[in-house]
Every structure is written in C-alpha cells, then in structure tokens.
Design brief:
739 residues, alpha+beta, Immunoglobulin-like, three-stranded antiparallel sheet, 29 helices, 41% helix, 9% strand
Length: 739
C-alpha cells in the first residue's frame, strides 16, 4: 500500500474541517502551534528527556524534540507522521493524541492532560481547526518575565507568580497557565503547576525557574529566619561585608570566629594540604601578635606545599591520567608545568592561554599534554566550557540546552575555535606534535549541516585570518573584563574549595536558571579577581583572611540548619591524599611511590596511576582524572574506609613502624604528660583538654597482659600503648575532618 503524502494529509484535514466546522476561521485569536500547543506539551512533560524527547527516537514510536525547541519537527511528528492517525479532525476528542494524553486509553506515561484541563482544551480546539501549521507571520517570543521577580517571604508563606510573555509584535500575554515552574531547592520551597510558591521552614535564598518556549525567567526569594543577629564579627574585607550583610538581612546569627588552633589547622589543610607541624603549632599558639594569622597565610602561599596541593587539584580536572607506560614522561612534564605555574603565581589568564593555544611536543611545551588526553574538538570545547567558563555545553551538541539559551549553533561555533588543531607523529614514540593548520576555521552543525565560524556564546568574533590560530582569539575573549563567565567560574570554584559549597552550586554549572546564593558577593569576588590581574594567590589570601572563612564550625541554636549562607564553617572530610600524608606526618613514617623521590607527599603525585598501587588512595576516593568535574572525587564516608582505618596492614604498619613516633615516644624520657601534649599538637594543632589528658595518661599507665595473663615486656607494652593512642586519634572525626 502506497504511503500517503504530507500534502494529501494536510489537504484532507483542511477539507474535513471546512465541511464539519464551518466558520472556525473567523476566530478572533487563532491558536498557534508554537505559542500555544508546544508549551502545553512541555508543561505536561510530554517532550521531556524521559518521555517522547528521549534520545534515540523518543518513546514507543512517537518522537518529540526536547522541550519543543524544534517545533517544526514536532508539528511533522504529530500531524503527518504515522499516516496522520494521531489526530481526528471530525471528532477531536477521539484523537489518539488526546486519548493517550488524558489517560482514556493505555499510555505508558499515565495521565498527562486531564480532559478538564485548559491544555487539553487548547489542543482539542487546535485539532478542531484542522491542526493548522503556523503561518510565517506568527510573532516570536521576545522576552519572558516573572512577576514578582523577587520577594522577601516569611517561613511557611505562599507567593503566587505570574509569567508574562512579550512577543515581537509588541503584544503581551499572561502565560502562567502554560509556563513550567521549577524550584531550585525543594527543601526550601515547592512550586505548584499554577505557579504558587510555598516556602518551607528553612531560612535562606531560594529560586524558582519559569520556562515558556525557549525562554527562562527566575524568581528569587529571601526567607529570613528573623533571629536577632547582635554584634557581628568585624569586617576585614569586602567578603565579610557581603556575607555579614546577607546574614543580617536574613536574621541568621553567625558562629563566632574560631580559636587560633582551629584556624591554624584549617588554613594549613586548605592552602597547603597538610597538617601544621608540632613545632609550628607551638610557635603559632605562643605568638601574641595581632597579625599572626595573616602572616601564616602568606607563609603557606610562599611554600612549595601550596603549589603541590593545588597542582593536584588542577591536574585531576585537566585529566592528567596515565593509561599506559608511554604516558609517564608526558604526565610528569605536565604536572611539573602546572606546579611551577602555581608556585610562580602565573596569572590565571596566562595559564589558560598557554594551555589552550599549546603547540609542539610535550617535552618542548608541557601544556601540549592536555591535547594528548582531550583529542576531539567536541571534547575540547566541552571541557573548556565546563572547566574555565562554568558552562555545561554537552546537551547542546544534540539539541538546544534544556536549562540555558545555548543552541547547537552555539555549540559548534565554539568547537570551530579548535577546528584547525592538527597533530602528527613526532620523533618520539607514541608522541604527537600539535600544530595549527592554516586555513579557515569552521565547524559543521551535524543537524543543519551549516558551516559555522568561531563564535563564543553568541558573541561575534572579528574575521580570523587563515594563518591566525583561533584558539588565541578564544583566550583573548576569555580574559576580557566584560566576559561574564571566565573570572566568575574561577572565583566560584575557589570559593567552594574553602567553603565546601559554591556561591553557585554545582560550581561548574553557571546559568541564568541557577542563580548565586549571594550575587553581590560573587560580583565583588569576580571584580576583585579581574582587577588583581587574575592573581590566584591574591584570591586565596583574600578569602583566607576574611572573618567569614575564619568562623567556627560549631553551630549556634539559629544557624544549625544553614547550608548556603556561610554563617559558619562547614566541616568536610580530608581528601584521600591529604589524609594519607596526615597519617604519615603524625606517625613519622612515609609512603614510597614508584618513580618518585623518597618522601614525596601523596598530594604531590603527578597522575592517577598511583591509585592502583595504593589501597588507601583507592578506598578514600582519589579521582582517576576521567572528568573535568570535581564531583569525581569521592567525598562521602563508607564502611570500607572505616574498616581500612581499623585493620588495614598499611595503617598498622605505620603505627608500629620502627623509628616512628610511637616508638620514639615510648623511649622518650620526658613526662608522659608532655609526650601526650606533643601528640595532640601534632594531630589536632591544639593542647589536649583536661579530660582527654587524664584519659590518655590513665591508658598509658595500664599494664598490658599476654594471652596467658602475664605482663607484657614494659618496653613493648609502652610502645603498643602509644600505638593504640595514635590509632584512636587518627580514627577521631576531629582528625578525619577539616573543621
């Protein structure tokens, strides 16, 4: 049987409507497919990625574009596909399209459009009109607004929202009924299909995304706790001003500034990835100068430990991983380049420029190693966008970004910057030479087949000569003071490093529909970073010097539930490498790693290969360098970690190591009280409390017995008692967490 052509189906539909529903064309405001029908399908979830917009052909033979971004294709699928059997023009209620959506016939997605709903009625009338295709003059969507755009709401309050669409013909329309509403934090606020926001009991900032067609508007609400704030810590810089002002507006009293011991341990772990030594702790606690905290921050930033620690963070997200033995030299060279850049405090924009525009071989120009791991232009632009701009572009390769304004053209225009990257074998085995191929840079949109020139997120780029490397233009665009992504992405990433939670969360998902919890603070950080000349050490120094960073982790009765306003320090588990080094430092032992000098710290490891030889690093979640997302690092605790601390051979070996701290303390002639104090200073950067000291001394004085009930040799008993005490300290939350 021959297929029915599209034109025959359309003509039959129009003829049927003219015969059965005369006079319908005289309607004052005809329903349009793009402005009336597609939004109904979006709100009902029909064109979501889990339903008929599912990748690979939709659902059960019916395909729609994601969120209706390809409305012309959707029209074809609904009206003309399957020989037009989805619509019944003479009896619209009997259309398969409506029968399934309303749950009147079996439908895997259940009831999406009840027969009494306005959306059902709109589709029914559109079908009754012959399911007309939109004429060329249908007005486009110029802007979407939400009214109100922001509000201060009491806990438990409700706020109705109105979505208003402004069209290119100047008309304005209330589209609340067909707009999609979504809360960014359902623990703080829920929003109904009708756009009514219901605030819960948690104070803070919450946002609601409003979507209509391809546009997004955001409603921002402040939910004050309303507690008396009292006297705030003094503002040491603009960070404190922004944080404390926000807390005052919300009525959330902050915790007090932490004591010296807590600060010393916290900042040493956060900047240098290590515990302060026992000698450093004694000196710092004895220092009475008012500026000792600032001086210690500067000392840490001058140390190679800072460069080691942050190089590990950067090389992980830059995918410096070793897949086989041939990667060894490249990995070492790349890690050394990153570390030396940080140690020399190379400006961040220069660091990124050298990476993106790298040419040559790894041994001659180490940043070329990035191209060894990230070979395809699509992978290059996705990694660059997410890591350096905080924009997740992966979705836009196949369809319009579901949460942003980025289209496939934006995706491939960005890919065009890397289109002229060439590679050829070098004189070294398994080593490519990276070079810029002369020619016009373009990338082909895989759907439209259009050849697109380089453009950065819609910003037009002046013509690029065939002999000019487009990647340099991209680097120039990135460092521009007017760039809304580059500096913001970095300061947000570093803020999360020090505060556990980004001002925008996740830290690499910056978009209009994911607003910051404190926009004034983020803008101030961004401006400060640009004005500093993209100075990374200055950024770290500014954050660490603030009283906001130096607040105690102990909550008060008002801020115990606060997780987004930085009213206190949020404790977090030590990273795998830092914890391994901390145990070695406390036990006075070392972990040896292949191809590295004896005494190399775990935070200084150049790549992921050492995870395979270290059960500790594997169990505690050191990342493998497979992703640009820092979420690859395991931050949660597990039973395997607890068991490892309890009975793993490597932990037992460190505690019982010949020449280690336990053996040294057992032989030490000083009073036991002094030795216990040393141990506490080494583990926690503080003196033991009176009760802790009493308990420790009582345990050390106990007589150990053999299985036969006889006393153990005194020297052996002393050594084992000190080992047990050390084991108790490294198993404590105070040791395992930065707080």
């Amino acid at each position: 049987m021959a297929l029915i052509s599209k034109d025959i189906v359309r003509c039959f539909a129009l003829a049927w409507v003219i015969a059965v529903v005369p006079g319908l064309g005289a309607a004052e405001k005809p329903i349009t497919f793009v402005n009336d029908i597609v939004p109904v399908l979006t709100k009902a979830g029909c064109n979501s990625g889990a339903c008929h917009a599912k990748a690979g052909g939709g659902q059960n033979g019916f395909e729609l574009s994601l969120l209706g971004f390809e409305s012309a294709d959707d029209y074809e699928h609904i009206v003309l596909e399957a020989r037009g059997r989805r619509l019944n023009y003479g009896n619209p209620e009997q259309s398969l399209f409506l029968l399934k959506a309303s749950g009147q016939v079996p439908h895997g997605g259940g009831t999406r459009l009840p027969a009494t709903s306005a959306g059902y009625g709109a589709i029914r009338e559109w079908i009754r009109a012959g399911a007309p295709k939109d004429p060329a003059g249908v007005p486009g969507l110029a802007a979407l607004e939400v009214i109100p755009s922001k509000a201060v709401l009491a806990r438990g309050a409700k706020q109705p929202l109105k979505a208003v669409a402004r069209f290119t013909d100047g008309s304005v329309r209330d589209v609340t009924e067909v707009a999609l509403f979504e809360s960014n934090d359902r623990a703080m606020a829920e929003v109904s299909d009708a756009g009514v926001v219901a605030v819960a009991d948690l104070p803070g900032k919450v946002s609601v995304m409003v979507r209509y067609r391809g546009r997004v508007a955001v409603f921002n609400a402040a939910v004050p706790l309303g507690a008396p704030v009292g006297t705030l810590p003094p503002a040491k810089n603009f960070i404190d001003t922004a944080v404390f002002m926000n807390l005052k507006e919300l009525g959330i009293p902050p915790s007090p500034v932490c004591d010296d011991a807590t600060f010393l341990r916290r900042v040493s772990l956060d900047i240098a990835g290590r515990l302060p030594t026992e000698a450093e702790t004694k000196a710092f606690l004895a220092d009475t100068a008012a500026d000792k905290r600032d001086r210690w921050i500067d000392e840490l930033l001058r140390s190679p430990d800072y460069a080691d620690f942050f190089a590990g963070k950067w090389t992980a997200v830059l995918k410096n991983r070793r897949d086989d033995a041939s990667d060894l030299a490249a990995n070492f060279a790349f890690h050394a380049w990153v570390r030396d850049s940080l140690l020399a405090n190379k400006p961040y924009d220069q660091f990124v420029r050298e990476l993106l525009a790298a040419t040559g071989t790894v041994l001659g120009n180490p940043p070329v190693a990035w191209y060894k791991r990230v070979k395809e232009p699509k992978d290059q632009i996705e990694d660059v966008a997410q890591l350096f701009l905080g924009v997740r572009m992966q979705c836009a390769q196949c369809h319009h970004h579901p949460f942003e304004r980025w289209s496939q053209d934006d995706y491939y225009s960005l890919a065009a910057f890397f289109a002229q990257v060439g590679r050829k074998p070098s004189g070294t085995r398994d080593e490519d030479l990276i070079f810029h191929k002369r020619g016009v840079a373009t990338a082909t949109n895989m759907k439209s087949r259009a050849a697109l020139k380089p453009a950065a997120f819609g910003d037009p780029m002046p013509a690029i000569a065939p002999d000019e490397d487009p990647r340099l233009r991209l680097a120039d665009w990135m460092k521009s003071p007017t760039n809304p992504f580059f500096a913001k992405a970095l300061v947000n990433r570093y803020w999360k490093h020090f505060f556990q939670r980004g001002l925008i969360e996740p830290e690499d998902d910056i978009r209009d529909s994911n607003p910051p919890s404190n926009p004034e603070l983020l803008a101030a950080l961004e401006s400060h970073f640009v004005k500093s000349g993209f100075d990374l050490k200055d950024l770290v120094r500014t954050i660490a010097r603030s009283n906001a960073y130096q607040l105690s982790a102990t909550p008060n009765s008002h801020n115990v539930g606060d997780r987004q306003n930085y009213s206190r320090y949020y404790p977090r588990r030590l990273p795998a490498e830092v914890l391994l080094d901390a145990i070695d430092q406390l036990a006075e032992t070392r972990t040896d790693f292949a191809n590295l000098p004896a005494g190399t710290r775990a935070v200084a490891l150049p790549d992921n290969s050492y995870n395979r030889s270290s059960p500790f690093l594997r169990v505690f979640g050191r990342p493998e360098g497979q992703s640009v997302c820092e979420c690859e690092r395991v931050q949660s605790s597990s039973l395997a970690q607890s068991l490892h601390l309890v009975n793993a051979p490597d932990i037992k070996g460190k505690l019982a190591s010949a020449g280690g701290r336990a053996e040294r303390l057992a032989k030490d002639a000083r009073p036991a009280e002094e030795r216990v104090k040393e141990l506490y200073r080494a583990a926690f950067a503080r003196e033991p409390k009176a009760e802790e000291l009493k308990t420790a001394l009582a345990y050390l004085a106990e007589t150990r017995l053999t299985a036969a009930g006889k006393p153990v040799d005194p020297q052996r008993a002393a050594r084992e008692n000190w080992q047990d005490l050390m084991w108790a300290l490294i198993s404590a939350k105070e040791f395992l967490f930065n707080h």
